[in-house]
Amino acid sequence: MRTIIRSLAAIGATWCVAISPVAGQSLPIQLPDGRIDLVLQPGVIDGGLELCLRGDLGSLGLDNCVRLGTGGLELTNPPMGDSLLLSPDGVALTENETYGPRAANASLGTGGLTAGINRDGRLTSLGWPGPGLYDHVNYLNLSQGLPNKGAFRNAGSFGGVDGEWLIGSDGWTVIDQRYANSNTQTLVTELEDAENGLRVTITDIVHPEKDLMARNFAFSRPPDQGFNYYANMNPTTARIPRIPSVTDAFLDPATDFATVYSASDGALLHFRPIQIDPTSLTRILTSQLTIENAMDAVAGSFGRGVYVAVAGQSMPSSFQAGTDTLGLLRSEVEGTPLIDPFYDIENGQLSGAWIAVGKTAGGLAGLAPDADGSYTVYIAAGDRPNNALRLIREARQQGFKAMRAASEADWRQWIRRARLPATQDQRTRDVSKRALITIRTATDRETGAILAATTPQTPYRQDWVRDGAFFKYALLIAGYSDIPEANSQFLTGIYRDLPILDGTWDTFYYPDGAEAGAVFPYEIDAQGLVIWSLWLPYAIGERDTAYLEAVYPAIADTADALLRCYDPRNGLQCIAPEDDVIVPSQGAQGAAAVHLGYQTAIRAAEALGRTPNPQWQARADELKAAVLDNLCDENGCQGGRGGIYLAWPSEVLEADNPDTAGLLQRHYQQFAEQLDRRSAFQAPEIGGFFQYPMESIMALGLDWEDPRRAERLDGWIKWLTHDVAEPGVLHNGERIFRDGERSFRHSVGFPHIWSGAEVYIAAAHVYGLEGCPGGVDRVGDAPCSRSRGTGPSGSAGVAGADSGGGGSIWLLALAAVVGFRRRFLQRCAVWSL
Asked: What long-range pairs does 427-430 form, CB within 8 A, spacing at least 24?
């Protein structure tokens, strides 16, 4: 590789001399209507040359350069990064966002239909029938440096006025985006067209009970030609098993089916049936159908599926069911279903095609204003045409203001119950409330699954059992038990019960209970943390024995399975993946989680008056000793971020144990020094990133000893909530880039539910919580003080012995990929598309 790169660099230097006379001269590549408007521009850079391609290729904006010089071969703005460099040192992707720029800046919903809105006010995702099963919007970001972040200009769903759309390429810029207040989920986005002196305020809400959302557009003055709306939906009824990222985003071109206009409802219906019968489609396209009987034909020809209806508060003056041809077909197909309404709107009217098949998009034009002068659009989903259209009719009867009032009343009532951090800092309290609200949004109200994220382009729209343990802890200490208990019911039906695999778990699951982990079918830290997850609703909740009886078989089976994951050479857990690292290891996070699992299983058995498996106690003791021997020294313990778990939620390192107390404080000091650098804006370097800065505070907030403890903890929390959290929406991403001296850019899984939940937990551990019963001094019971908390119940660690087992964890993983029996699907009546 080094020889090849050096040869390319030498060739580049030679080419540089040859190309110098034409450097800076542009070669235009153009077709009519601007459908192709590209510029190819060669140039000379330090030590080499570059060739850049900029402009529009249909509805895709390009801004890419290939550079060849002494440093290697570089491609700018590749998918998922800022630059891809091939050099003698290897391959490097800078500004790596893993799955591309985040698709949304906010997420709205209450466990059914779930909407993702980006910072431009564009609808970029629509999860239904729950937040994590399928996404029905055609949208994919590629790179921060590309126009529209690499998404096609006609991707998503948005409004328009006066023959233009409310998007950046038509002159609209973002002024602000925020939630209307900290107690609700009403999203407000302000845009401005400075050239025409026009502003619009977009207000988005999702109905608290129905699969229905409303989008209201209030302009600073009445538009000259009325209001229009565009929807590039992508109804989806299938997924590639175990590859959720691909299904969510990269397969958009392979899905969709048709769009039809309902004349009686003035609504567009985007749909894809579960069973696609070509005969039914042929019959519709070749029969004597008219716009008046089209909906009856669709309802009678296709069965259950995904039907997404889009309509205004009023009837449109014109409409178009068109085809998304990526902007390559325009005026020559005007007046036919082949014209995309995105390009059909220039004169303020649409062509009037009432059905389109394939990759489709729809538009409504000339929508009349509501009584207050604003414009409202409703989007509803159902499993049959009439179910989606019925919701549109009901929405029109209710009206936007009443629907907004119902949404905000529901959220106020829900968040009013929350125990908030006992601090006077309002920003910290607001960030905490937003974290709790987002967990509810991520909970599938039919199955109880809690997703790691609700927006696409990451494999996080699933229930990650490791993450879910912390979501449930956050909800329980905040005073909510219903969601954690429902999640436990979901979990007890999906763990494996095949030979060899009995008691093991996939890393993450689809909301219908199917396994989703292709790369990580077994992670050792997830196995231990899921036991804690099942225990928590009993330990922090109402001490409901009936609940514990129901989940105890899963707890015991998982603890028994952990006995097989054992390395007799050193006493640690077996070598296995942990913390989403593909290379198997024996790290601190895995060790801490396994130890926590044994502790918890023992406490659960004792709470039910049962005798714990004595091997659990023996292995817990042996594992703790092995950690101290193999992973710790006089300076602290190994493990990086994973090392935090040694202190909390496990108690491998105990504050009140003289054998580990000093080691614990030295371990803490490593995290404190890192937080000091980050909160002083000294690390990482500008352009670098960090992840999970809140996790170490969760542990430090309990029993860290420092002369300036209160001051430093308070400063770190305020750094998280005032400086790091995304302004306006107060969410966090998994990966946080430092973009400037005191500015950050969040990426990967935004809003990232785990990061938000852990900010709340960290604040709870630092400040304590309001509204807690007095006299409680252990977080395992309720985090009402700053004293040390534990995983299982507040007690110290428990003991264990050698299982004598072993075995190949990769044999288990291979069998897991091949198949398993899901008790969940036998029990739960959830329809799966």
From this structure: 427/718, 427/721, 427/722, 428/717, 428/718, 428/721, 428/763, 428/767, 429/182, 430/182, 430/721, 430/730
Do residues 457 and 99 make contact, with C-beta atoms less than 8 angstroms apart? yes
List the structure tokens of 77. Answer: 């703005």
Q: What is the Cβ-side half-sphere exposure of residue 14, based on CA atoms within 13 angstroms?
A: 6
Give the span between the Cα atoms of 111 and 104, in whole angstroms. 17
- Residues facing residue 198 across a β-bridge: 193
User: Residue 54: CB partners within 8 Å, gap ≥ 6?
Assistant: 38, 39, 41, 62, 63, 64
Amino acid 808: pLDDT: 40
Please, which residues have CB within 8 angstroms of residue 801's CB and are 6 or more apart in sequence? Answer: 614, 615, 617, 618, 619, 621, 622
User: Secondary structure of 546-588 in the HEC alphabet?
Assistant: HHHHHHHHHHHHHHHHHHCCCCCCCCCCCCEEECCEEEEECCH
> Residue 778: what are its φ and ψ, rounded to 5°?
-135, 135
- What b-and-e string marks burial along 44-58, b requiring 16 or more CB atoms within 10 Å of the CB? beeebbbebbbbbbb
To which residue do tokens 């802890």 refer? 473
CA distance 576 to 588: 12
Give yes or no for residue 202 having a pLDDT over 60.
Answer: yes
Cα 579 to Cα 172, 291, 467, 526: the distances in Å are: 42, 55, 11, 8
CA–CA distance from 361 to each of 139, 230, 277, 339, 357 (Å)?
Answer: 12, 8, 21, 9, 10
Q: Are 691 and 733 in contact (CB under 8 A)?
A: no
- If pLDDT is split at 50, 70 and 90, which confidence band does 249 have? low
Distance of CA 364 to the CA centre of its chain: 30
Q: What is the pLDDT of residue 734?
A: 94
Residue type, 506: D
- 235, 385 in Cβ contact below 8 A? no
Per-residue pLDDT at 391? 98
pLDDT tens track for 328-367:
999 899 999 999 999 999 788 999 999 999 999 999 999 9
In whole angstroms, what is the distance from residue 464 CA to residue 592 CA? 18
Cα→Cα distances 264→268, 293, 294, Å: 11, 10, 10
Q: Closest Cα to residue 416, out of 104, 184, 665, 638?
A: 184
Cβ count near 282 (within 10 Å): 11
Contact 295, 269 (CB under 8 A): yes
